[in-house]
Write a structure and sequence with these properties.
heterodimer, A: 360 residues, Rossmann fold, globular, B: mainly alpha, MetI-like fold, two-stranded antiparallel sheet, 12 helices, 2 strands, 74% helix, 2% strand
Chain lengths: 360, 277
Amino acid sequence: MTQPIIQLSGVDKFYGDFQALSQIDLDIRTGEFFSLLGPSGCGKTTLLRSIAGFETPSAGSLHIDGKSMDGVPANKRPTNMVFQSYAIFPHMSVAENVAYGLKARRLPKAEIQERVSEAISMVGLQGFDSRASHALSGGQRQRVALARALVLKPRVLLLDEPLSALDKKMREQMQSELRRLQRAVGITFVLVTHDQEEALTMSDRIAVMFDGKIAQVATPQMLYGKPSSRRVGNFIGMMNFLEAELLGTSGQTVEVDVQSLGRLTLPLSQAPGGVDGCQSVGIRPEMLTILAEGQTAEREIEAVVSEVFYYGDMTYYDVTLLQKDAPVTVTMRNTAGRKVLAAGDTARVGWSPVSLLLLR
Amino acid sequence: MVLISPTLVFTLLMLAVPLIMVLALSFWTQSYLTLDRSFSLENYKTAWTEPMYQYLMARSLKISIFVTALTVLLAYPVAYFISFHVTPKRKAMWIFLITIPFWTSYLMRIFLWKVILGYNGVVNGSLMGLGLIEQPLSFILYNQNAVVLTLAHSWVPFAILPIFVALERVDRSLIEAAEDLGDNRLRRFLRVTLPLSMPGVIAATIIVFIPTIGDYVTPRLVGGPNGLMISNIIELQFKKANNAPLGAALAVSAMAIVTCVTLVFVWMNRKFMRGPK
């Protein structure tokens, strides 16, 4: 495997007594679209800013492209950043903004001009060259910020919540556009986001962060399908949790007593974070089915519908499993002929042991 | 309704009426003890052609340009320091401290400069005591240098404030962006911080330039014979020379020149505020 473009090991960051980053070990591979995902205050932005050179880690080492970044200021690093506020220079036109970094490198005028117009057309802003930056919409500012960073052909492009200021439609459009751009230029992208959907749809790999620590690094599918802890499972999408008691392991299986569902034997692969200390079993709402009349499932359990949330294409049911009062959410696609239940209805919920995860 | 509003009445009484009176006076002529109220451009002719007035006008302009440049140059680093290097909690206190010189009267401060710069003053005393000079320096008091220094000192706080406000409004992420794009400290100051703080610099320039060109206390007290400015001559016309109309014409001329220079700055400010086309 090729050398990782960014290597962090044992990185700590303290602000006074507050520890913003704690023992971060992370390798980001060359050419991948990597996301740092976590709730606000989890340290993801601090980590990104440490890579960019705007924060100095209190301990640990950071290598970019195999070179130690110790004492290397931001203006000498092979990274460029798209700021959350875009940070478009208000006293410059679109073209001047894009040319900023090239001028800082004192390149010949002709080359600057050529690369600027190339970058501007790459982000789809042809004809906006001389537009003043205050006359741009949010989406256009975002494109200018992208062009301004990409025109320098950095080894790594850092994006700090670049889509959070855009409305929903624009955000979705920019998501696919960012993906397309990343594939086109082949530059490593490191994206900071608190939006799990954004991270899932765009990234090759995601690092989930809580309280200054990395909880899990995995592909979107692994992260959603095999979260390493209850907290990760709850943060990425929805997850139901049922109390579980460990009865013992034998070989490649583990025996648990799950609230409402009873005694089960699960393979160790269904405990992605390890078996020790697991006290609950998680199951995704879409892995549960409300069975129609005559429909059967591998396992079934009686339930009462307590709340119904109708979304048009989907219906979310909050149901109470009859055994032991456990509240769980079930999401059902409103396919042809499927009856939408009402609160108070009884239902049979179908499930399968394969979709259970034993979590800490 | 609007015409009898207190604001308008107040403005008319305090600003417009005095101005109109000076303007009217400038077109009359003094004949010994009486005023000749017939329209005449004679005063203006004198004001713009008499070499002494031309010379004094030019000197006043020169001194106030020097004062303005010196004031802004002194004020910018202070404003920059407060905005960028003082912790946010302490900024208000720093600004407050800067206003302390205003707690003493303007005259008092000028007199103190005489004490500092005088023949037997603090500067000369110290330098002679240290054996660095044998004769007291004479070029530091009762000349134009002293006027420039004294005026700059008294106007610096007024220049610090608008520059500080402009610097506070510079989005820090823009400076980070400049760093990220490859600029070192100096280059990002020149390419981002300075241009974005220009409205404050221009405001400071206007604030200092307009009153200094018309100052007459400072040149009178520390300027000596070579440090006199146009306002000293205007005062002379109104009082000792008993030629109020000529004084008025000189005042209006000075005002016109100030207006022209100020308009240039306002135009520059607009240009900076608007950004690129």
